Amino acid sequence: MSEDSLQASFDFFGLSHDASIDEVEKSFRELRNLYSEGSLATYSLLDDADRQEKLAALRKAYDRILQSYSHTPDSEVDPEREAGPFPAKSLIVNIDADLQQMPGLFLQQSRKALGLSLQDVAKRTKVRASILQDIEEQRFDFLPAPVYLRGFLREFARMVNVPDADALIDAFMARDKNDKERKID
Amino acid sequence: MTRPVPVEKPNIKPHVWAIGGGKGGVGKSALTTGIAMTLAGQGQRCVMIDADLGGANLHTFLGMSSPEHTISDLFRDPTKNLQDILLATPFENLGLISGARAMLNVANLKHFQKEKLIRQVFSLEADYIFIDLGAGSSFNVLDFFIAAHNGLMVVTPTPTSIENTYHFLRAAYFRKLRHVIRDLKVEALVDSSLDDKEKSGIRSPRDLVAELRRRDPSAGEEIDRAMMSFSPGLIVNQVQRHQDRNLGKEMALACKDFLGIDVTMAGSVRTDEQVLMALNSRRPTLSMFPQSNFAKDVRQIVQKLEW
Ligand SMILES: Nc1ncnc2c1ncn2[C@@H]1O[C@H](COP(=O)(O)OP(=O)(O)OP(=O)(O)O)[C@@H](O)[C@H]1O
Ligand SMILES: [Mg+2]
Question: Which of A76, A114, A163, B228 has the fewest Cβ atoms surrounding its Cβ within 10 A?
Fold first, then answer.
């Protein structure tokens, strides 16, 4: 993809090309709320087709920018990122969620069992806390494209000692797909 | 992007504000009173004009009984002007021009009556004038709104009020555009652009201006420049839920994004039962409950706006 489309993506968010990922993320969330079906602020202003069109364009611009951030040179990678999973703590929280049915909840319980906050995991995985939260809550509409999502899930699963990360990723992606198909019906 | 300096400068005396927003009962009169009282309290000479001729009630918000002189006097006796019917209020620096008992509605004002009224508003002796417009988007209401130096729209967090506000905003924008076009004598250009509306995909005010620019770059640019000064403020009133505190910001974003109109978020005002308590005691909320949420929110808006 060209630099042009990257610039256009920043323009979409009304941000300059040196905006931080936090700014992009914040703007993404604001716009997504604005274009979403329940949005009060755009009541009577957008019809369904407009919303879909806007959301698709938003998604595309966001993914384009995320992709550019994932190409940061190795030297900029935080050494902490390479750190292994957190050591197990006393299991105060039961992990009783069904990994197949509720992969997001399973991740959340695994995290809490280690006594970790979303920020703790975000710091180590370099995945934004808000995305981790969306993963835990299985808010599929809000999550990035599958190609990024898989990577995020793997990092998350690794950090919170999920024994079978592949099974979890597959379960999660299958849920995501179901959710999208339901929406289209 | 460098924005041209708006033609109107805030230091023009009197500085005229109009308060509108389409829907009835959203709090236009309550907020007009609150804002004017706050500025009057700071020593600015303010005049409130009740242009809601069908349902004038600003005097009630100020705790005054039925006024002796009202705008109707002007229509009965053409030698009278606005200054003659200016009423003193119980509050220092605050005057009122009442619209009570008017036999006609602003919507049915004759053209020359409206023009005369607008002219007189601008020659009143005051620092600030606040025109409370009443509900609706009729041409005469819109003409007062766009004649003012600044417009304020009041919206509540309800679908109906939001819908009316967008309708009002669009209508006011097109009304102003019409005036600009008339002044520039480019009516034919606009008519031909609108004739092919479907073909050129004109759906919003912004689309129209873009099409005009495409057809006639120099006229388009002048229109664009003149329309830049159309940038009303938005107040979200009767906020109760936490999530609605962001509504003004979101609506301003939506106005920019979908209509191409710059709207300034002026602030939010919480629902406050002391507003009704004060009204029932025939006293302004700001003087009876100066520490109420309503009073605090109004003061914050006054602080934020450019005077
Ligand atoms: N923030 C608030 N909290 C509680 N009550 C409010 C608030 N704002 C306005 N009100 C009440 O709502 C009612 C309608 O307000 P107001 O008369 O100012 O609306 P309006 O927009 O001027 O209506 P109209 O279009 O009929 O002129 C009044 O009783 C007023 O006291
Ligand atoms: Mg009113």
Answer: A76
For residue B56, tell me if it sits in a domain: yes
**ipTM of this model?**
0.79
State how far the Cα of A59 lies from the Cα of A10, in Å rounded to an integer.
Answer: 12
Distances (CA, A) of B129 to A72, B45, B96: 57, 9, 10
Q: Does A33 touch chain B (CB under 8 A)?
A: yes
Q: Which ligand is nearest to the CA of B237?
A: 1
**Residue A110: CB partners within 8 Å, gap ≥ 6?**
A95, A160, A161, A162
Residue B42 has pLDDT above 90, yes or no: yes
More confident residue, B115 or A147: B115
Rounded to two decimals, the pTM is 0.77
Ligand 1 pocket check for B24: Cβ under 6 Å: yes
Q: Residue B66 above 50 pLDDT? A: yes
Q: What is the CATH number of the domain that holds B60?
A: 3.40.50.300
Residue B56: pLDDT over 80: yes
- CB atoms within 5 A of ion ligand 2 belong to B 28-29, 52
Give the range of the structural domain holding residue A146, as residue numbers without chain letter.
Answer: 103-184
Summarised one tens digit per residue, pLDDT across range A21-47 is 888 888 998 898 899 888 999 999 888
